[in-house]
């Protein structure tokens, strides 16, 4: 990892080490990928004010997230199928987050189960929930998150209809999964990855296997899961989740001021301004484009988290300047995981941490609380 200096280096290493179908699943977006590109392009358009001769010798990244101390304003976002980027990927990512002193969010669509992670890490983590049609299953899943002592529930609300990812279809990441000679060859030339995944605790959705009959049958499990996304989901379901989850609630996938106001009314502690990393509504504006309006409208009533296109500490600084209290990393750490397991995720976090510290120094800022629109050039 010595010559890895930026997230793009981790991305290229991930691309080399992991079969194409799984790399593309992580890397790509929905439809024409306009929103995926806009997330990056709009962040890069935001320029900083360079300030000089300010004593920046005592820069400090520490902050609070949902009232808890955090070493920096970063969170590992829920990312599905991490265990396919690296054997036991969820455990590796959670360990790296905990070693760095930041929260890890486990996806409903994880390969390791809630219990697998809880039994393998030192501290509590967050759980992300997709509300599926089978509400009995969802209630049981929330109860499992409570039993595992998860400290926050991140309710994702932007995937009741699934945006098509063309590349996943071309790669046979469909239901049922497609096995072609070229795919088998692609696996065969990556024996390190194959061995890691085979040594992992599980090779299918760990939170769901066990609930579906014949779970050994991957096709049945995938079909059940795909059919379970619930197009009827609405704000009443959020109230129901509120009634069965006693802890801190985060609503993830807010992209509109009116929805942000409704999220405040649910009594949730935080919302995530997110377009699911350009994987859902293609043609939506970038997350950074909508952040200032949402922060101005509700930032004094609810904690604002942000994601979408964060690949550097500079990007974190941009989002904090425009009203976010913390940022979720998605692909940035998934690339690290594919590139090198726990060490790769640790590297991703460290790269972003150092970039943020340097950017703060060059903008004449010492603390996270000081970062506001004044650090941006007109
Ligand atoms: C491969 C992949 C899988 C994802 N799976 C989930 C998921 O299971 N649940 C969820 O709430 N968000 C999921 N997301 C969205 C992320 O939580 C986050 O919103 C997004 O990655 C942020 O954009 P970025 O990747 O540009 O940082 C996924 C994102 C990626 C890249
Ligand atoms: C299994 C997927 C629905 C997980 C997800 O949220 C994503 O791929 O963006």
UniProtKB/TrEMBL annotation:
Gene3D superfamilies: Aldolase class I. Its cofactor is FMN. Keywords: Flavoprotein, FMN, Oxidoreductase. InterPro entries: Aldolase_TIM, Alpha-hydoxy_acid_DH_FMN, FMN-dep_DH, FMN_HAD, FMN_hydac_DH_AS. Residues 1-378 form the FMN hydroxy acid dehydrogenase domain. The keyword Oxidoreductase applies. SUPFAM superfamilies: FMN-linked oxidoreductases (SSF51395). It holds the Pfam family FMN_dh. Belongs to the FMN-dependent alpha-hydroxy acid dehydrogenase family. This is Alpha-hydroxy-acid oxidizing protein. It comes from Bradyrhizobium aeschynomenes.
């Amino acid at each position: 990892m010595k010559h890895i200096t930026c997230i793009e280096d981790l991305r290229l290493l991930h691309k080399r080490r992991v079969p194409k179908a799984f790399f593309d699943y992580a890397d790509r977006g929905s439809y024409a990928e306009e929103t995926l590109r806009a997330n990056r392009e709009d962040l890069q358009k935001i320029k900083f004010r360079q300030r000089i001769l300010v004593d920046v010798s005592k820069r400090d990244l520490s902050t609070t997230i949902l009232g808890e101390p955090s070493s920096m304003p970063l969170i590992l976002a829920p990312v599905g199928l991490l265990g396919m980027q690296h054997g036991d990927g969820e455990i590796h990512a959670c360990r790296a987050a905990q070693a760095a002193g930041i929260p890890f969010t486990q996806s409903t669509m994880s390969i390791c189960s809630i219990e697998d992670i809880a039994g393998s890490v030192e501290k509590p983590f967050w759980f992300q929930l997709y509300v599926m049609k089978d509400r009995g299953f969802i209630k049981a899943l929330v109860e499992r998150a409570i039993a595992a002592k998860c400290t926050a529930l991140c309710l994702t609300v932007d995937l009741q209809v699934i945006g098509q990812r063309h590349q996943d279809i071309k790669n046979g990441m469909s239901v049922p999964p497609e096995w072609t000679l070229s795919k088998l060859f692609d696996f065969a030339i990556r024996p390190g990855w194959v061995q890691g995944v085979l040594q992992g605790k599980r090779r299918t959705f760990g939170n769901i296997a066990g609930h579906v009959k014949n779970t050994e049958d991957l096709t049945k499990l995938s079909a059940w899961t795909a059919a379970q996304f619930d197009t009827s989901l609405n704000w009443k379901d959020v109230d129901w989740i509120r009634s069965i989850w006693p802890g801190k609630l985060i609503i993830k996938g807010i992209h509109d001021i009116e929805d942000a106001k409704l999220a405040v009314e649910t009594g949730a502690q935080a919302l995530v301004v997110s377009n699911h990393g350009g994987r859902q509504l293609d043609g939506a504006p970038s997350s950074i484009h909508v952040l200032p309006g949402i922060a101005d409208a509700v930032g004094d009533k609810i904690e604002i988290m942000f994601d979408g296109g964060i690949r550097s500490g500079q990007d974190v600084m941009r989002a904090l300047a425009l009203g976010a209290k913390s940022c979720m990393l998605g692909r940035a750490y998934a690339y690290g995981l594919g590139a090198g397991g726990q060490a790769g995720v640790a590297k991703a976090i460290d790269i972003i941490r150092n970039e943020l510290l340097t950017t703060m120094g060059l903008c004449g800022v010492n603390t996270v609380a000081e970062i506001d629109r004044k650090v941006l050039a007109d």
